[in-house]
Specification:
The chain is 45% helix and 14% strand. By secondary structure, it is of the alpha/beta class. It folds into two domains: 227 residues, Spore Coat Polysaccharide Biosynthesis Protein SpsA, Chain A (Alpha-Beta Complex), CATH 3.90.550; 69 residues. An eight-stranded mixed beta sheet has the order 7-5-6-4-1-2-3-8, with helices on both faces. β1, α1 and β2 form a beta-alpha-beta unit. The longest helix has 32 residues. It is elongated and about 90 Å long. The two termini are 37 Å apart. The N terminus is likely disordered.
């Protein structure tokens, strides 16, 4: 493997934990929720692989409100290894919030995300980094031989991947694979909400980043239970609408709301003129016609769309002119970096 050049110390002004970056090459972000059986094996395999690659690294484990012994195991591991940083949420905020917390704290030149359930293979990290070192900003893992049930896991995932690719214009076989490599400066400019973590490559595409994918190993779950079900399809579809809007109209909401508004007013006005013509020239009664009600509703709806567009413009300007708040609440953090006052 080609050895990555350590990142030069820089300032990260975006996140609330901004500080001079240490010369770390890789930050591993691992969201964890009730994975007590997997944690020891994952930690061993991760550290063995990273040490074999001979790169400077840190592991940021996010305990997303686990109710089992996950945090106790992480606490013991972090006490013996300062390269393991642990963030404990007060409750379960979801995988997107866990990724966001890890991104906020990452100090490496590259951020690698990986699931804690041992279905991803840490041995693929070197290949993904090699690919990123070719000049790619995002390298996404592709579970080409996915070891999951077909009807409730693989089939919905295939449909979702196709929809996401078509809607966003960023074509990937496997958006749902957590094993990905990002350049830190790419994700540092992305605010995550809801369930948007799987859409990061698409959301980042507005920056003009280079995205590629690489087949990776995938194993059947050995411990615990899957946290995902077929109900996730609904959330993915709703988030897809959000992402499509963010990619196309996030900075210009009036373009979409105004278009609907003008079309609605136009059709309402034309319908009204048609009814007026019937009354004036053919002396037909129009008071009891459903078309009259439709014309009125279309015009009112059109002005409502225009109002929503104006409000959206104000919200966008407020969003870009103020600093966003984190979407998580931290209960406890182990081995945090030195505070700014201590560095000074």
């Amino acid at each position: 493997m080609q050895v990555l050049t350590p990142a030069q110390p820089t300032m990260n002004h975006h996140h609330p934990f901004a500080e001079p970056l240490a010369p770390l090459q890789v930050s591993i972000v691992v969201p964890i929720y009730n994975e007590e059986e997997s944690i020891p094996h994952l930690y061993q395999r991760l550290t063995e692989e990273l040490e074999q690659l001979a790169i400077a690294y840190e592991i940021i484990a996010i305990d997303d409100g686990s109710k089992d012994r996950s945090f106790a195991l992480l606490h013991a591991l972090a006490a013996a290894d300062p390269r393991l940083r642990v963030v404990r949420f007060r409750r379960n905020f979801g995988q997107t919030a866990a990724f966001s917390a890890g991104f906020d704290r990452a100090r490496g030149e590259y951020i690698i995300t990986i699931d804690a359930d041992l279905q991803n293979d840490p041995a693929d990290i070197g290949r993904l980094l090699d690919k990123a070192n070719e000049g790619y900003d995002v390298v996404s893992g592709w579970r080409e031989n996915r070891q999951d049930p077909y009807w409730n896991r693989r089939l919905p995932s295939q449909i979702a991947n196709r929809l996401i690719s078509v809607a966003t214009g960023v074509y990937l076989h496997d958006y749902g694979c957590s094993l990905k490599v990002y350049r830190t400066d790419v994700v540092s400019n992305i605010q995550l909400y809801g369930e948007l973590h799987r859409f990061i490559p698409a959301i980042a595409s507005w920056q003009g980043v280079a995205v590629t994918e690489l087949p990776v190993n995938h194993y059947a779950r050995q411990y615990g239970k899957s946290k995902y079900g077929i109900s996730r399809i609904v959330r993915v579809l709703l988030d897809l609408i959000t992402v499509r809007f963010l990619l196309s109209y996030a900075t210009r909401p009036m373009q979409i709301f105004g278009l609907f508004g003008l079309l609605s007013i136009l059709f309402g006005t034309l319908t009204g003129l048609y009814l007026v013509a019937l009354k004036l020239f053919l002396n037909q009664s129009i008071g009891d016609r459903p078309l009259l009600l439709l014309a009125v509703v279309l015009v009112i709806l059109g002005f409502q769309f225009l109002s929503m567009g104006l409000i959206g413009e104000l919200v966008v300007r407020t969003y870009f002119e103020t600093q966003g708040k984190p979407i998580y609440v931290v209960r406890q953090e182990l081995n945090p970096p030195p505070a700014r006052s201590e560095q000074e």
